[in-house]
Every structure is written in C-alpha cells, then in structure tokens.
Amino acid sequence: MRTYRWFADPVFIGACLLYAANRWLVLPRVGGSFLHGQFNDLLLIPAALPGVLWLQRLFGLRHEDRPPLWSEIGTHLVVWSILFEVVGPKVLPVHGDVRDVLAYAVGGLASGFWWNRPAEQPMTCG
Fold it and tell me: Where do the structural domains in the chain lie, given as residue ranges?
C-alpha cells in the first residue's frame, strides 16, 4: 500500500494551481460559461478531499495514510452535491445546477483513477 502524501499529492497541487489560475488570471480576462461555471467545479474533489481526509485523520476518524478510496470519493460527492446544490440555494442567494454535480463527479472520477491506480512494482533483474 502506498503512503498518501496529503498536500504533496500531485493531483491536489495541480487542482489548486488550476483553480487559482482560473480564478485570478483567466476569469477576469476570458468569457465563456464553462470557465465561469463548471471548470472550478471539476476541481472540487481533487482540491478539497485531501484536506478533508487529512482533518479526519488528525481527529482520529480515518486510521490510514492511504490515497482516497472510491467509497470516500463517492460519499463526499453525494454529501457535497446535496450541500452545495440543494441546501445552499435554500439559505444563500445562489442557484442549484445539475451540471455542477456532473462536474463534481467527473473531477472525482478522474482523481479517483489516479489515486487508486495500481502500486508501482519494483523492477527486478533476471
């Protein structure tokens, strides 16, 4: 089993860098509904889940230092979708959008395939 590197994970770092670039460099200069709507939603799970799981580990709710499991990705996808797209619009001046949930799912699938790829096998001679 690979030890998960939490905030040194390349998926986490890449998602955070893409979010920052889109938020502060691209959006002020470029139009387009995808960049303004769903691009950052693709990054929700790869950028937020490592921090949430690290907090769970810190408070003893998670007992291993391993990459996010499919069950954890799925659970957080469901919880965050309900929170952001059902509950949020009832208490904040925002609207729920099923395209956002689809973007969360695509980002979760992409990062999940990376996090759950087979462990690298050591090379042997002969």
Answer: 6-115
Among the listed residues 38, 45, 97, 47, the one whose alpha carbon sits nearest the alpha carbon of residue 73: 45
Give pLDDT, residue 101: 96
* Contacts for 116 with CB less than 8 Å, ≥ 6 apart: 67, 68, 69, 70
Give the count of beta carbons closer than 10 Å to the beta carbon of residue 120.
7
Q: CA nearest 43: which of 87, 100, 115? A: 100
CA distance linking residue 67 with residue 35, whole number of Å:
28
| CB atoms closer than 10 angstroms to residue 93 | 6
Phi, psi of 26 (to 5 degrees): -85, -55
Which pTM value belongs to this model?
0.87
Residue 7's closest CA among 60, 54, 56? 54
Q: Which two tokens stand for residue 118?
A: 């087979």
Q: Which residues, including other chains, have CB under 8 Å from residue 38's CB and lie 6 or more apart?
A: 99, 100, 102, 103
